[in-house]
Amino acid sequence: MKQKICIIGLGYIGLPTAAMFATHGHKITGVDVNSRIVDELNQGRIIIEEPYLDIMVQAAVTSGNLVADTKPAEADVFIIAVPTPITEEKKADMAYVKAATESIVPYLNKGNIVILESTSPVGTVNNLMLPILERSGLKIGEELFVAHSPERVLPGRILIELVENNRIVGGINTKSAELVRDLYKTFVKGEIYLTDAATAEMCKLMENTFRDVNIALANELSKICENEGINAWEVIRLCNKHPRVNIHQPGPGVGGHCLAVDPWFIVERNKELAKIIEFSRKTNDEMPHHVFGRIEAILGNIKKKVVTILGVTYKPDIDDTRESPILELVELLEHAGYEIRVYDPFVNETKYKIDNLMDACSDSDMIVLAVNHSQFKDLDFNAIYRLMNNKNIFDCRNYLHKDKLTEIGFNYYLLGNSSQ
Ligand code: SAJ
Fold first, then answer.
1. Which of 408, 418, 413 is closest to 366 using CA atoms?
2. d(Cα 151, Cα 167) in Å, to the nearest integer?
3. Catalytic residue flag (residue 377)
4. Which atom of ligand 1 is nearest to the CA of 153?
């Protein structure tokens, strides 16, 4: 059955979800407080980078099934997909979810469905949303159906994963869960598993926490291997030949709005219990400092140190710098008085950005491969070598061709291996 759906929040999750429902025949009102997003969208344009999203949005808008507005409209279904950032004190900032929930109350009618997609602390649906939704006068669970269905898509693969991933739907009662499952079946090809709202909230948090803790283990291993004088990447490669071992990749830290944030939502409510989780978060947060320490050690007493950072996003081949550990590294270098050049073809604006790679490398004392953007694999390292002052490369991702670089004459250093 084709439904009217009002989606609050037109960011990395809300917009692709809106486009997906719209191209499957539903009538969508996309709502955002940012009028620029709304204006652009109504002309079929988007302001975020995600493969094929522009084409899909254009098709959705042209078909008339997707319109944007700065305020909600009456609908059969309301989906909340707003940010849940973290405060300085590592507490979930639920202001957007609260405001979004309040904003839809005047538009609610008997039989409506409300879905929270935003990643949220356990208890958000039951303790924050339901008391607000009750103001509609509708009987919760009988006249108004509510569920949490957390998004699980990977930036860079959003449109594929929206369709193919399994999905969890946590309803405030079985009827709510079933109605929401039937709605997502419009485009979801993966399995849809039903549970209660609080369990769904915890599942989402724990998925990202699982990854964060495993990355922390890999990062700790990389420091241990530096201490032992062996290569962590070789250890990981060989360990992962074991059928039940899957060590993650070390790196200069963990970024993005998910892994670096969500584990804190568990810690906040379970301070005395979530010990490994909190320690892992801190381990990953410390990695830019570790990288900085290695840069200091390699460059030693050079007077005016010039460092060229390749990549500033939180992961490869995307334009997203949210919570990027490389921004923190840049700050550390800045405080220590380094001359910094940042080269990242994906990013339009960032501190110390230099558009031309050769300009960014000229007179440099060290290239730091911070993000493994595909195009960094085969740069013209011969030309770069000639331009540099001191010929150091520090590979934080085990990404570059060590043999080729040493043959050119570079001093090649690798995170997770102190003998290089
Ligand atoms: N990273 C490592 N080592 C690794 C893997 C990742 O250092 O072995 C770093 C990356 O460099 C990056 C960060 O972790 O800085 C996060 O990258 P990611 O690719 O692991 O994940 P996100 O944040 O882009 O997306 C995650 C996904 N969650 C899981 O894979 C469990 C995605 O499915 C979620 O939908 C998304 O969070 C979200 O929105 O919650």
1. 413
2. 8
3. no
4. 35
